[in-house]
Amino acid sequence: MKLIQIDAEKCKKDKLCIIECPFNILRENSDGIPEVIPEAEAMCMKCGHCLAVCPSGALTLDGVSPESCDPSRKDIVVDAAAMEDLLKNRRSVRVYKKKPVEREQVAHLMEMLRWAPTAKNLQPVHWLLIDDGEKIRELAGMTIEWLKAGGVYPEIVEAWEGGEDMILRSAPLIAIAHAATDGLTPAVDCAIAATSLDLAATSYGIGSFWAGFFMLASNQYAPISEYLKLPDNHAVYSALALGYPKFKYHRIPQRQESNFNWL
Hints:
By secondary structure, this protein is of the alpha+beta class. 33% of the residues lie in helices and 15% in strands. Strands 5-6-8-7 form a 4-stranded antiparallel beta sheet, sandwiched between helices.
């Protein structure tokens, strides 16, 4: 089967797929129908732009037909005002209700994250989800051991010894994004995916914070990496603690002015 197939009867010869292709692997044949340039097929990253942009549904990509795809929204999905509200009202939540995050909701969020962009559409991001309170506490405790061994942040260690978890904040859910270390841009891809999760979770009333200390410890402290049992050659690149906020926020704190320039 050819990677890209064109239905000549449906094709309007508008060249949109040729123009849209990020790596210019398409050209017109003698009849004006798009075709893959010989030897260029290996450059295709199967991003689906050609399939998505064709208004007549004439193009099939790697066996995926136009009919098997959901229709895209023609209007703006989120207007500027709604997006501004989302970003301004987003908080790093560190105090949670003692209520588990429903796995059905988490499954839907994971489904959403399939569409988070990745370099060359390689889609290298894997997720490890933990909603067992005892396991979450064990991971927080191991992170404390790592801090102790390094002699850093004694106030966090002291808080732990006093019964307060400042590492994972006794969150009901931990979402860990990991990928192969020899990937193209694993850290960036995982950070984009985690940011997408951070924002998407608000649609279910779920808050989160980036578990920075745990992220560092997971790749530097052998007991944690052994505990997580990630695939060989994988590393943790992002980690979020998630749960339902215990408190409501009544105002938006101020931030510094945007710092940007034009070149």
